[in-house]
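Ticket #4471: structure export looks truncated?
Reporter: QA, pipeline team
Priority: medium

Steps to reproduce: submit the single chain below to the structure queue and open the exported record.
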Amino acid sequence: MSLRIIFQILFYLHLLLTAATVIFITVYGLTTESGGQHFHPLKWYPPVLASTACGGIIGFMWQWITFSYPRNALKAAFWLGPLLTCLMAGMFVYMGTATSLIVGLVSFCSALAQSLYGCWVSHRFEYATNILSVSTAFPPAKTRVLVLATIVIGTLYCCFLVSGIGGATALQDKFKLAFIFILVIMLSLGWTMQFLKNVIQLTISRVTYLQILGNHMDTCAALRDSINRSGGCIAIGSILIPVFTLFRSFGRLMSLLGGEDEILFCCVMVLVNVLPQFVNRWSFVHIGAYNKEFVHASRDTWEMFNSSRMLPLIDSDLTGALCFLSGVAVGAFCSMVSGIWILVMRQSYALEVSIYAFLIGYFVCRLAMGWLQACVAAYYVAYGENPESDQFDSTIPARLEQIQGSQALLN
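Actual output as written to the record:
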């Protein structure tokens, strides 16, 4: 039995177990009297469900704005991300508890880091706008319907999990380990939303890639293949890519800070240079088009980028940062919707509900933005395989010349 089949079985088994757990916890938590004075369902659920709906609506609108006005959307994301995160940090500080102060401080540091990053990469905005425009100029048929359907499914699934979180919250006075159920539900939320996003990415990147090569494929047929044939690879990537991206980001930060520890330096080089050879998001193009295994596809795409001297371009791509900051902005807005609502009602669980709302808003927005990232990935992979094709304009070659010129000046 191959690894992809094992992970496909594990993913669907986890869905069944999560559904059973959520139903049991919701029914038992809301029918028992353990909630006492600390949990009121009619006051706890509306803010979280309202913020979840806001996440779905804003996410769909934002992906349309990004597609229609990429230049303005890019600048807005790099402004709104840190701004809304800073406002969210102020809300956490206003809550006045020790835990909320810590969360507020972390949020404020995150907003500062986002602002500094935006200033550092501002010279790349022009190219990021151009590559986003040219790669999404002719989106696959039925893309908007597919994105809308996926957002609806993701939002409804989040609402379902929220019911379980509420049930576990109601049991916290009676069972001190009720937080374990909440942790399990949130992990399931992360894996499932990543899975849905990567289904969209694999489907759209496959259709776009074949479209660039001169072949046309029905989007619905590609979606069926993504779920039935490549579900295991998607499940693997949905775990490994976020984890490895976090490690690589940490490695880049450590390399920027510098240091004289040789062992630490070697570890950083492994994180930055070695990990992408085995785990990267570009692999979904080859998984969809050629039905490769996840690690095999990752290695092939990275070697192709290396042989075509595109690695500096890939490393400096801002599409991932755009999607991340968009998710942070929407998550922060949803967090403030639920947090301010509960603060007005003078309830004690404003912090935990705000954190749930942030995570849900972030994942839903990333789900909505997935197809844009898929188009860019397909464009890069298709160009790397055949740079001389007349399907491509001067966007990538001009940027490569700029990067090589900058490297020559530094040397």
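Status: closed, not a bug. The export was complete when the record was re-opened. Leaving a note from the reviewer for reference: The chain has a mean pLDDT of 89.
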